[in-house]
Amino acid sequence: MDRRHYIIPIFVPHEGCPHNCVFCNQNTITGNTNLVDDKFVTRTVEEYLKTIDRKNSIIEISFFGGTFTAIDIQKQRELLSVARDYKDKEKVDFIRLSTRPDYINESILSNLKDYNVDIIELGVQSMDNKVLKLAGRGHTAEDVYNASKLIKAYGFTLGHQIMPGLPGDDFKKDIHTAEEVMRLKPDICRIYPSLVIKDTPMEKMYLDKVYEPYTLDRAIEICKIIYGMFKVNNINVIRIGLQPTEEINLGNKLIAGPFHPAFRELVEGSIYNDMISSIISKNYKGEIFIEINNKDISKLYANKKHYFNYMKANFPHCEFIVIQNNNIALENIIIRFYGKVENLSLHNYFLCKYKHNSAMALCESDLHKI
């Protein structure tokens, strides 16, 4: 029986962060304005542990929000000592934190080792220095290279977070960022298409018409390409799209941008239907049987069957018959039509797609459609 993975999130909103990035209002993004101290961490962890079956679980304490390693060192130790205590007592398995690339050095990493931290996620956002400057990040791409190499040298699990569609960004720069991330070989990555949040400098840029966020369709297309690039290079994409909170909803504190509460499912749904369409001739007429694991059916039918119905419309002389089969491996599909059987896997689909095409060429060919 597979053990379920639980994350106990400790949001440290904007604490320690030395810059005000144009996209950032941490209280809005995290939905958290509480004072975070050792008592808060203990209380939060205990509340979560009451609801988790320890025997069948992998449990992680994760410090999100501000720049953790820029917090006063005594405060870092206060918070981490609680997490380390739970890990030492085998009540949790991992400790994770997020920080900026320019707040990583050997002294910082040695301290994190002392507190048994396992995973460090870097807010990379972009690998284009002009974009980083316009975003008010206060660091360069070189800082990302240096921090990433140092984190891996110290034996931590390395994570990257990137934000396609920042001010000054375009599709080529997004692809460049993805290519540079691949060079650094993080273990995990999050892809957050840029959103315009209320009470941020980016809101003013948007209202002044000097910045336009990606549409939902464009964000999906670029994220499909980046996801494929990472998939082929064995980078685990653990999230696509910002997690919805009461604050992050269109019409509340979200002003504009490609937000959807199930953004990842839209990306995967579009990919699944692209994958199926890639092997069917336009002239084919007849039944097409699609066998898929029931855990993947929501991807095939994402967004109220939007992509599935689009595929059906492209093949008007075909009848698509979907069969749920739990013996099919996850991220795999079996297609039966015209006496043929095609075994498709997401990984092999991307591998084939990228084998003879550059990511930039794919970006330009895919995006002309929208």
From TrEMBL:
<dbReference type="GO" id="GO:0002926">
    <property type="term" value="P:tRNA wobble base 5-methoxycarbonylmethyl-2-thiouridinylation"/>
</dbReference>
<dbReference type="InterPro" id="IPR006638">
    <property type="entry name" value="Elp3/MiaA/NifB-like_rSAM"/>
</dbReference>
<dbReference type="InterPro" id="IPR058240">
    <property type="entry name" value="rSAM_sf"/>
</dbReference>
<keyword id="KW-0004">4Fe-4S</keyword>
<dbReference type="GO" id="GO:0051539">
    <property type="term" value="F:4 iron, 4 sulfur cluster binding"/>
</dbReference>
<dbReference type="Pfam" id="PF04055">
    <property type="entry name" value="Radical_SAM"/>
</dbReference>
<dbReference type="GO" id="GO:0005737">
    <property type="term" value="C:cytoplasm"/>
</dbReference>
<dbReference type="Pfam" id="PF16199">
    <property type="entry name" value="Radical_SAM_C"/>
</dbReference>
<keyword id="KW-0949">S-adenosyl-L-methionine</keyword>
<dbReference type="InterPro" id="IPR007197">
    <property type="entry name" value="rSAM"/>
</dbReference>
<dbReference type="InterPro" id="IPR032432">
    <property type="entry name" value="Radical_SAM_C"/>
</dbReference>
<dbReference type="InterPro" id="IPR023404">
    <property type="entry name" value="rSAM_horseshoe"/>
</dbReference>
<dbReference type="GO" id="GO:0046872">
    <property type="term" value="F:metal ion binding"/>
</dbReference>
<dbReference type="GO" id="GO:0016740">
    <property type="term" value="F:transferase activity"/>
</dbReference>
<keyword id="KW-0479">Metal-binding</keyword>
<keyword id="KW-0411">Iron-sulfur</keyword>
<keyword id="KW-0408">Iron</keyword>
<keyword id="KW-0808">Transferase</keyword>
<feature type="domain" description="Radical SAM core">
    <location>
        <begin position="1"/>
        <end position="231"/>
    </location>
</feature>
<protein>
    <submittedName>
        <fullName>Histone acetyltransferase</fullName>
    </submittedName>
</protein>
<dbReference type="InterPro" id="IPR039661">
    <property type="entry name" value="ELP3"/>
</dbReference>
